[in-house]
Amino acid sequence: MLTTLAVENYRSLRALRVRLDRLNVITGANGSGKSSLYRVLRLLADFARNGAVAGLAREGGLDSTLFAGPGRSGPNVPLALKLGFAAHDFGYAAELGVPIPGKSMFNRDPEIKSEAAWAGPVLRPSTALAERGGPVVRLRGEGGGWGAVPLTIKPFDSMLSEIADPQRAPDLLVLRERMRSWRFYDHLRTDSAAPARASQVGTRTMALAHDGADMAAALQTILEIGDATALAETIDHAFPGSRIEIVNREGRFELQLHQHKLFRALGTAELSDGTMRYLLLAAALLSPRPPELLVLNEPETSLHPELLSPLGRLIAKTAEDTQIVVVTHSEELIGVIDEYAARLRMIELVKREGATTVAGQSRLDEPPWYWPDR
């Protein structure tokens, strides 16, 4: 379970260290930095798939994402983007900076300047497992000594993708696979042309796709090998007296919703955006193979207020098996989660002088954190 999230110089996140728990709710006014904190988690996951540089490019490049508020030394002084996390047993951090000018047409791509992975919740010389400075990586050996990896890494590649393997760096491999298991849902489509509204070839689906395209297969997987009782209950909580059915038409799956007092089932083309979104969230939260971390960005979007209570109960139940981060504006959803959750950490973000901070958190309240040296 992640215990700390740290970031410097990303959008309004000038220097932020956040404690995390099993179930976390991130809230705050518009423009306070909630979406930025969500993107930090996504960027960290991108390192495990060697996509962090491309992820920043989709946001407009490094220059567009670096902090631009008070506290900079000057408009022409380059900053480094730093981001990392710590868990009870592993931690990881990386630094990205501006490349040295050259002849390449890709000279606006950021470079990975340093990376570090460590055992335990805090990076210290004695806990470091792998360190990367520029193109050189060194690994901690079985006897505790350091050994350099006999290859250099390109500035756009992460050591998580290039070095991690069972023989050379088994700890890095474990860390990478755990990061790859993280799931993010912020673009579940419910429009009339959404893939989830069309029939799809059915195959066992342990994790709902990021856009919800395989919803019918994901729900059928839950019915067959997951917690079918929990799925039935969460459907009944939201739509009393209703149940879902997955119809197999020559290998293509279609969802139908049987509602109380209706003489026929409703197909996905007839369901409202809110109903579709709730069913998609149910498929994501009740996955038969829970992820290490599940992150939901504004799950209340398009939902009728009556659906916030069953959604909050479902989020609280899912947090018993997996760590969850919820970014939300909805006070009602927060209240329901708080009522049903065994333990909830509220993270309210506020912006002061252009920089995001955690409300009520002083320097003494920050979790311990040390960035790796270059």
Mean residue pLDDT: 92
Structural class: alpha+beta
Morphology:
globular
* Rg from Cα: 22 Å
Write the layout of secondary structure elements.
Elements lengths: L1 E9 L2 E7 L3 E6 L5 H15 L3 H7 L3 H4 L15 E7 L2 E8 L13 E9 L8 E6 L2 E5 L5 E3 L10 H4 L7 H11 L2 E3 L14 E2 L13 H11 L2 H11 L4 E7 L2 E7 L7 E2 L5 H13 L7 E5 L10 H11 L4 E5 L3 H10 L4 E8 L2 E4 L16
Parallel strand pairs: 3-16, 3-17, 10-15, 15-16
Antiparallel strand pairs: 1-2, 1-4, 4-5, 5-6, 6-7, 7-8, 8-9, 11-13, 12-13, 13-14, 17-18
Description of the structure:
- This protein is of the alpha+beta class.
- It folds into 2 domains: about 1-20 and about 30-180 and about 350-365, no CATH class; about 185-290, no CATH class.
- The chain has helices spanning about 35-50, 50-60, 60-65, 160, 170-180, 215-225, 230-240, 275-285, 310-320, 330-340, and strands at about 1-10, 15-20, 25-30, 80-85, 90-95, 110-120, 130-135, 135-140, 145-150, 185, 200, 245-250, 250-260, 265, 295, 325, 345-350, 355-360.
Characteristics:
globular, alpha+beta, 374 residues, 10 helices, six-stranded mixed sheet
Summarize the structure.
By secondary structure, the chain is of the alpha+beta class. It is built from 10 helices and 18 strands.
